[in-house]
TrEMBL record:
The chain crosses the membrane at residues 137-156, 168-188. It comes from Umbelopsis ramanniana AG. Residues 1-19 form the signal peptide. SUPFAM superfamilies: Thioredoxin-like (SSF52833). Residues 7-131 form the Thioredoxin domain. This is Thioredoxin domain-containing protein. InterPro entries: Thioredoxin-like_sf, Thioredoxin_CS, Thioredoxin_domain, TMX_domain-containing. One of its GO terms (molecular function) is disulfide oxidoreductase activity.
Length: 221
């Protein structure tokens, strides 16, 4: 009797462990620093962009966590989130203009997902591959394109620029504009000078017509 009881307990424990292993997903924090190394070319991701101060994000957060708990652990999709305040490069790469924003990524192809979907709809969206019915972003403006990479660097630069006092930013912009104007002025003056030198060399090198010689008249005696 005892052996039977212990056997049932062991079976129950094993079943519980297997269920825990096959249920639920971890939400990974993506940043400007780890995005390129973590998001592989053939990976499938669901990524939420949020901000700690965003009220709508606070409402969507528990729903997103419920999706992570509901998804089967053996499903190939990975869940992640991005703090736009601490990762301005990613926010710029994905052209995030409202929060929260949800993206599906598969084979570096990006699709935007409706954040109004409930937990069951998002799970079905991933399990049934409903994302195949959503148009893919234009490749030129993809976060993985040259344009997206450049926009990401601009976002990081602007974020760093915003950390400086306003007077320093305005002074830097004024000096930059002044240097550009001076550079154009110097280049223009050098161009005019070279044209004048060229004209002068042309005028010096040109042959002047020889003046006709006056012939001496001979006296006829």
């Amino acid at each position: 009797m005892k052996l039977t009881t212990y056997g049932l307990l062991l079976l129950s424990l094993a079943a519980f462990v297997l269920c825990e292993k096959n249920a639920g997903q971890e939400i990974i924090q993506l940043t400007d620093g780890n995005f390129d190394s973590i998001v592989g070319t053939s990976d499938e991701w669901l990524v939420e962009f949020y901000a700690p101060w965003c009220g709508a994000c606070k409402q969507f957060g528990p729903r997103y966590e419920a999706v992570a708990r509901t998804l089967p652990g053996d499903l190939a999709v990975k869940l992640a989130k991005v703090d736009v305040d601490s990762s301005p490069g990613l926010a710029s790469k994905f052209f995030v203009t409202r929060l929260p924003t949800l993206f599906h990524i598969k084979d570096h192809q990006v699709r935007q997902v409706d954040t109004k979907l409930n937990v069951q709809d998002i799970v079905a969206f991933l399990k049934d591959k409903q994302w195949e019915n959503i148009p893919v972003w234009n490749g030129y403006f993809s976060p993985f394109s040259i344009v997206g990479t450049g926009v990401g660097y601009i976002g990081i630069f602007m974020k760093k620029l915003s950390s400086f006092p306003p007077w320093a930013v305005y002074t830097g912009l004024a000096v930059t504009i002044l240097l550009i104007i001076v550079s154009f002025g110097v280049a223009a003056s050098q161009g005019m000078g070279s044209e004048e030198d060229e004209d002068a060399s042309r005028s010096d090198g040109a042959k002047t017509p020889s003046s006709p010689r006056t012939r001496k008249s001979r006296k006829v005696d």
